[in-house]
UniProtKB/TrEMBL annotation:
This enzyme's EC code(s): 2.7.2.11
UniProt entry tagged with the keyword Transferase: yes
Alphabetical list of PROSITE patterns matching this protein: GLUTAMATE_5_KINASE, PUA
Binding site for substrate: S52, D135, N147
Gene name as annotated: proB
Species per Swiss-Prot/TrEMBL record: Shewanella colwelliana (Alteromonas colwelliana)
Keyword tags: Amino-acid biosynthesis, ATP-binding, Cytoplasm, Kinase, Nucleotide-binding, Proline biosynthesis, Transferase
Similarity remark: Belongs to the glutamate 5-kinase family.
Free-text function comment from the UniProt entry: Catalyzes the transfer of a phosphate group to glutamate to form L-glutamate 5-phosphate.
Pfam families named in the record: AA_kinase
Protein name from the UniProt record: Glutamate 5-kinase
Binding site for ATP: K12, S167, D168, T209, G210, G211, M212, Q213, T214, K215
């Protein structure tokens, strides 16, 4: 890691840093982060801040509520969002801007592009975008669920060079450091494997919703887009001093040398599958090859309801996932074609309209 070689970074801050005592927002642990952001901007590095904490910030305003239901949590988010923004705003001597999003916004291609355009415009006018999931209105179907993964999606949308995820530990350990004295910090990860996920364990904070596993998921999304990712201890001001010196204070995830194309990365990591095309277990065609077409003869079943242009999962009957792809047909029409006893008729219909999935919008799954 060279000394602030980044041109644009995303910094993710969690609820435990925003409201550590569950009594509203506190700037105690945010001062060092704010100073780091200011220093980065002073060195010509653009910053996008992804900040959790609206529910935690608003919880204290709902007296005697120990186990809030979903509507109450949304109300807490509505109350806390203003406090959270006010807390951040007072820590900076430059203008900030609030951007609230849902997964529904990100997974819709047109709205995703709109978010990108808004981000670039804010950065071009030297404002600090502060992004959070719109917890006050989102539903289970439309939410990301944790701001670690949201920060990776934002980093991809912002074409960031680096993603810095603030945690309550220094980084990824071989074991849970709160339980095992012999746990060792892993300073660098070149490949995210099942063993890496196995080390992640669960959440150590009872304030936020994302543990180390969601941070690994976020890192996997980011590095596949060519985005350097670092997990650091957000409670330790020295973490940010080291970053400013070009040092690694936590766990560094090195990015892919050949990042995925932007639209394929969005399809694989951000878009939501609306249905499935199930093929025979012995299906072995290379879907990435443009001369290979997925035909009605290959599909044995269709699940879900989707429209033309929606993202679908192509998988084998045994559950093996092959690809996410853009569908050229609605589920209704594919069902109609595949159920025809007259194979010549089905092939004739498809011949006139093209392959089942878009040849240029296929993200292969490992």
């Amino acid at each position: 890691m060279a000394n602030i070689h980044w041109k644009r970074i995303v910094v993710k801050v969690g609820s435990a840093l925003i409201a550590p005592h569950k009594k509203g927002c506190s700037s105690h642990f945010l001062l060092g982060i704010a100073q780091f952001i200011a220093n980065c901007r002073a060195q010509g590095c653009q910053v996008v801040l992804v900040s959790s904490g609206s529910v935690a910030a608003g919880r204290h305003r709902f007296a005697n509520v120990t186990s809030p239901d979903v509507p109450t949590k949304k109300a807490m988010a509505a109350a806390g969002q203003a406090d959270m923004m006010a807390t951040w705003d007072k820590l900076f001597d430059f203008p900030t801007a609030q951007l609230l999003v849902t997964h529904g916004d990100l997974r819709d291609r047109d709205r995703y592009i709109s978010i990108k355009e808004t981000l670039f415009s804010l950065l071009a006018h030297d404002l600090l975008p502060i992004i959070n999931e719109n917890d006050a209105v989102t539903t289970d179907k439309l939410k990301v669920g944790d701001n670690d993964n949201l920060s990776a999606m934002v980093a991809a949308a912002a074409d960031a060079d680096a993603l810095i995820i603030c945690s309550d530990v220094k980084g990824l350990y071989t074991k849970n450091p709160n339980i095992h004295d012999d746990a060792k910090l892993i300073k660098q990860v070149s490949h995210i494997t099942p063993d890496i996920y196995a080390m992640a364990g669960g959440a150590t904070s009872d304030v936020g919703t994302g543990g180390m596993q969601t941070k690994i998921e976020a890192a996997e999304k980011a590095i596949s887009h060519g985005i350097e990712t670092v997990i650091v201890d957000g409670f330790d001001p020295d973490s940010f001093n080291q970053l400013l010196k070009g040092q690694n204070p936590g766990t560094l995830f090195t990015p892919f040398e050949q990042p995925m194309q932007e639209h394929l990365h969005w399809m694989l990591h951000t878009s939501q599958v609306q249905g499935e095309l199930i093929v025979e277990d012995d299906f072995d065609a290379d879907l990435e090859q443009h001369n290979t077409q997925l035909t009605s003869e290959d599909v044995v079943a269709v699940t879900g309801k989707f429209s033309v242009g929606d993202t679908v999962l192509v998988r084998k009957g045994d559950g093996t996932k092959l690809a996410k792809a853009k569908s050229n047909y609605s589920s209704c029409l594919i069902n109609f074609i595949t159920e025809q006893e007259d194979g010549d008729f089905a092939n004739d219909v498809q011949h006139k309209t093209g392959p089942l999935i878009s040849e240029k919008n296929i993200a292969i799954l490992e």
